Amino acid sequence: MRPVVILIFILAAVFQEGAAGWPTKLFSDAEVADRAELIVVGRIKVGSIKRVTREDGGAYRHTAILIVTRTVKGVTQEKELPITIHYGLLPVSARFEKEMNIKPTLPEEPGQATRIFEDNPSEGYFRPTGDIHQDQLWLLHRAGYESPSKTLGVLNPEDIQPATKEQRIKALLSKP
User: Fold this and answer.
1) Backbone angles phi, psi at 21, to 5 degrees
2) What pairing do the DSSP bridges indicate for beta strands 80-85 and 153-154?
3) Phi-psi region of 57 (alpha: psi -120 to 50; beta: other; left: phi over 0)
4) CA distances from 60 to 19, 79, 125, 169 (A)
5) What whole-number distance in Å separates Cα of residue 112 and Cα of residue 95?
6) pLDDT tens, N- to C-terminus, the chain (176 residues)
7) Of 6, 32, 66, 133, which is least surrounded by CB within 10 A?
8) DSSP reduced 3-state for 112
C-alpha cells in the first residue's frame, strides 16, 4: 500500500506542474518567416509599452508602438506601427531583471534597456530578446492564443530576432 501512495504523490506533483504552464515549442527561422505577414527592422518607441489585462482579471498582454526602420517582407506605409505583445511574453526593464522572479516588474524604465522574456508559469522566465529599444527584426503576424488578433504582433520569442539575422531571413524568403 505504501508504494502506491508514494506513486500517487509523485504523479500528482508531476501533472500539477505541467497543468500550470504550457509546453514550449521552438520555432525554426523558416517557420516564423513563413507565418509572418509583415517582417520589419524596427524598435519599440520608448514609453509606449502598455499592459492590458482581460476584463476577468486573468491573462494580460502588452501593446506598444513599433518604429519601423525598413521593411523586409510585406507592405506598410506606417513609420509607427501599433503592435500586440501577446500573453506569454513579458517585457522587462533591465533594472528589474534580477527581481522579476519575486515581484511584479515595470516593462520600461527611462534610460534602461528593455528585453522580452518568455513567461512560462511552469518553467519561469527565459529566452530573452535583445534590447527592444534598439533595432531588432520583428516577424509580425495576427496569431493569438484565443483567436486571431486585430493588430499585428508577436507571440513567441522567435518572432523577435537580432537585426543581424536579416540576410538569413531574406534568404529563407527567396526559397520556393
Assistant:
1) -130, -155
2) parallel
3) left
4) 19, 26, 16, 30
5) 7
6) 566 555 555 544 444 444 444 556 788 999 999 999 999 999 999 999 999 887 776 678 899 999 999 999 999 999 999 999 998 898 998 887 877 777 777 788 888 899 998 876 556 567 789 999 999 999 999 987 666 778 899 998 899 999 999 999 999 998 76
7) 6
8) coil
Q: Where are the alpha helices (DSSP H) in the chain?
A: 2-20, 29-35, 166-174
Rounded-to-integer distance, Cα 128 and Cα 114, Å: 10
C-alpha cell belonging to residue 91: 517585457
CB 32 within 8 A of CB 158: yes
- Strand-strand pairing, 50-53 and 89-93: unpaired
